[in-house]
Amino acid sequence: MDSSTHKVYHKDCFDSRDLLDVYFSDEDEMVFREDTLLFPIENLRKTFALGHIKGDILIDLSIGSIPYHLYSSCEFFKDIIVLKASDRCIMELKRWVDARTGAFDWSHAAKLHVDTEGNSDELQEKNENLKSAIHQIVKCDLEKPNITGLIVLPPADCIISAWLLDAVCKEQEDYIRYLSKLSGLLKPRGHLILIGVVDATFFTNKKDRFHVFNYNERFAREAVEGAGFVIDCCKVKERTAVSDLTDYKAMILIVAHKEQ
To answer: Cα 136 vs. chain centroid, distance in angstroms?
Structure first.
């Protein structure tokens, strides 16, 4: 299929629940577990366990309505602010935070977190700690000068962005421009944690193919450094999932801090 016909995550109709079911669930046929769940969970746990990434405010800008990548961070920040590109993603995430009927079940991801930490008896506490730490869920538009419109965000100590830039960027210039916007949300010496896919062109959502920005590790490193960050750690994991639903070659996680 010609990539020019692919839909665009933040502009076309996107089913946030289908994304969770296909790429992040605990279903037997969910083949992405090692890549989309274990890889971020294990590396984020190790990152925050070092103890130097902490503070008052963490801002999350990630794809869909995923919260599970924030389990390791919630005990290190007083306030987590989640930014979402669509009302549908906001509704899905609020359903989980408020424990409403029909909310997506993230207990498998919480269990992976506590298991990697060796605290399997703290499963329920892990869920509640994260829910109570998420103080705001705000709609955003990366194209706006102020991405949250009239809402003014406090400077963040850390920003986590998982797979969002991959989905919204069309060209290298977009990626570089959005990284600069993320930098503008951070305090001096604040940290940026990026999770993405390497060498990808599409992912499938409700049988539709959605665009993914195609880049490699070298570009990601150079873009992050070009936006004024110093890279502390970069992990790349080759793909293990066997599926034609998406064509990424590897997962990448970059931890960096703002120079000033």
So the answer is: 16
CA–CA dist 124, 129 (Å, integer): 9
pLDDT tens-place string over residues 36-93:
999 999 999 999 999 999 999 999 999 999 999 999 999 899 999 999 999 999 999 9
Closest CA to 41 of 93, 133, 110: 110
Both structure tokens of 184: 């503008």
For 148-196, how does the pLDDT look when each residue is reduced to its tens digit (9 = 90+)? 999 999 999 999 999 999 999 999 999 999 999 999 999 999 999 999 9
Dihedral pair phi/psi, residue 152, rounded to 5°: -95, 120
Q: Reduced to 3 states, what is the DSSP secondary structure of residue 7? A: strand
pLDDT digits (tens, 9 = 90+) for 220-256: 999 999 999 999 999 999 999 999 999 999 999 999 9
Q: Is the dihedral of CA 108, 124, 87, 138 positive or negative?
A: negative
Give the 3-state secondary structure of residue 162: strand
| Distance (Å, whole) CA 56 – CA 40 | 22
Report the pLDDT value the prediction gives residue 122, as an integer from 0 to 100.
Answer: 72
Q: What distance in Å separates the CA atoms of residue 187 and residue 57, rounded to the nearest whole number?
A: 10
Cα first-last separation, the chain: 44
* Residue among 69, 235, 49 at smallest CA distance from 159: 69
